[in-house]
Write a structure and sequence with these properties.
Blueprint (H helix, E strand, L loop, with lengths): L4 H10 L22 H13 L8 H14 L3 E5 L2 H11 L7 E5 L5 H8 L3 E5 L21 E5 L10 H11 L2 E5 L7 E2 L2 E2 L6 E5 L12 E5 L4 H9 L35 H11 L2 H19 L5 E2 L7 E2 L5 E5 L1 H4 L5 H14 L4 E2 L23 H8 L1 E4 L11 H26 L1
Parallel strand pairs: 2-3, 2-4, 4-5, 5-8
Antiparallel strand pairs: 1-9, 6-7, 6-11, 8-9, 10-12, 12-14, 13-14
Helix pairs in contact: 1-11, 1-13, 2-8, 3-8, 4-5, 4-7, 9-13
Bound molecules: pyridoxal-5'-phosphate.
């Protein structure tokens, strides 16, 4: 075995891998979200209006209309989080106690939490190693008489194989809800993520390609789900019927209109106004993310043991996250993958690269899901991916606002680290 645990740590921590100046100049990095004149003006406009909330308040309504038009969807409801939007979809779809919902082992914990909110049971399926999304070929073996829905997640901004997923759902009589929290503007076979199932939930959290602080968007083309979701969003009240009166913005709510169970998932005017301003720049930021990803991919793919993310030709990727896999053997090591990954991560950071580990464990390995019969060890491919990969960029410095020059420096840093780290670890060990 070349390289040992201590030697690797020493090399990675003590200095940059070859010494000298760090490869990356921090001044180039742009912090996310980018708040400009348009966002300031939008926020001030809300304050000047004196209307901060309300089911028919103008910024909320404007955002819903504009996002639906952006996707080419019929209906959109703004919410106070992406988790709320997913929960609304599950509740509107009639998912209830004891029902099973099949989802991916690789997502943010909000995905299975939304299932638990309905006292339903998340059933985890492992990923496809190339796309990091749920592997459709593993879904059917998890279907039982209690299965009611599929909840695929377009992880990192790359759409799932939705034709395959929808065809299983049609055959087995299941509802499909998309978790599009990371995929605003991504597309699959020419159709936008969020319009590929019966309903979808997007997140507007500050880290997302479309940020507002905290918020979400529920999307559907189905007019039966819409009023149910609207009721669920506001304490069981469907406030849609009353025309908006700006002098009495909140007076359309009333307990007498409660027609069913509901939660408090209402959006607010300030975040909605900011989201509208951000929506106008979404395509520009997504295109910049794709160009940055293309640059990184072309430079990193020549390095031994570095495997950039792939995007099948029938999809567009918005690179909410750019995940790189590392092959320790090809890099000249035979130490455990997670140790090698940590060594490379530390060395890249010492060079000034913004790099992170997003998702340390497959969801079924979390303590929360211990009680599920199938959970432990059900996602070996997700475990393997997380052990041997890291994300270039972070929540605060993702790819979408960065200049190309910074990506060149990131690629320089990778070259420096990859070409020297095995040699240095070896030398320290001897
Ligand atoms: C894949 C995924 N699903 C769901 C969510 C939940 O969204 P929110 O944080 O807006 O509730 C997030 C965001 O954090 C996410 O990344």
């Amino acid at each position: 075995m070349r390289g040992g645990r201590l030697a690797a740590r020493h090399v990675a921590r003590s200095e940059q891998v070859r010494g000298g100046r760090p490869a990356v100049s921090k001044q180039l990095a742009v912090r996310w979200p980018v708040i400009g004149a348009a966002e300031r003006q939008a926020a001030l406009g809300v304050l000047d209006s004196g209307i901060l909330n309300g089911p028919s308040a103008p910024q909320v309504k404007g955002l819903e209309k504009e996002f639906a038009a952006f996707l080419g969807a019929r209906f959109c409801l703004a919410t106070n989080s992406g988790t709320a939007a997913l929960h609304m979809a599950l509740a509107a779809g009639g998912i209830g106690a004891g029902d099973e919902v099949i989802t991916t082992a690789f997502s943010y914990v909000a995905t299975p939490l939304a299932i638990l909110y309905q006292s339903a049971v998340p059933v985890f399926v492992d990923i496809d190693q190339e796309t990091f999304n749920i592997d459709p070929s593993l879904i059917e073996e998890r279907i039982t008489p209690r299965t009611r829905a599929l909840l695929p997640v377009h992880i990192h901004g790359l759409p799932c194989d939705m034709d395959e997923i929808n065809s299983i759902a049609r055959r087995r009589g299941l509802l499909v809800i998309e978790d599009a929290a990371q995929a605003h503007g991504a597309s699959y076979r020419g159709r936008p993520a969020g319009t590929l199932g019966a309903m979808a939930g997007f997140s507007l959290n500050a880290t997302k390609n479309l940020p507002c602080g905290e918020g979400g968007l529920f999307v559907t083309n189905n007019e039966t789900f819409l009023p149910v979701a609207r009721r669920i969003r506001l304490h069981g009240i469907d406030a849609e019927e009353v025309p908006f009166d700006p002098t009495h913005p909140l007076d359309e709510e009333g307990e007498e209109k409660v027609t069913g169970m509901g939660w408090m998932y209402m959006p607010q005017e300030l975040p909605a106004a900011i989201a509208r301003a951000q929506l106008r720049r979404l395509v520009e930021f997504n295109e910049n993310a794709a160009a940055n990803a293309a640059l990184l991919t072309s430079r990193l793919s020549g390095l031994p043991g570095v495997i950039p993310p792939s995007c099948p030709p029938d999809r567009t990727h918005i690179y909410h996250k750019y995940r790189v896999r590392l092959d320790p053997e090809a890099m000249g090591f035979s130490m455990p993958a997670a140790e090698m990954r940590d060594t490379v991560l530390t060395a890249l950071r010492a060079e000034g690269v913004e790099a992170t580990l997003w998702g340390a464990k497959p969801l079924p390995e979390l303590e929360l899901f211990r009680g599920l019969g199938h959970a432990r060890g059900c996602a070996p491919r997700t475990s393997e991916l997380l052990d041997c990969s890291l994300v270039v960029g972070s929540q605060s410095y993702p790819l979408f606002p960065q200049p190309r020059a910074l990506m060149e420096q990131y690629a320089d840093a990778f070259e420096k680290v990859v070409t020297n780290i095995a040699k240095r670890v070896d030398a320290v060990q001897r």
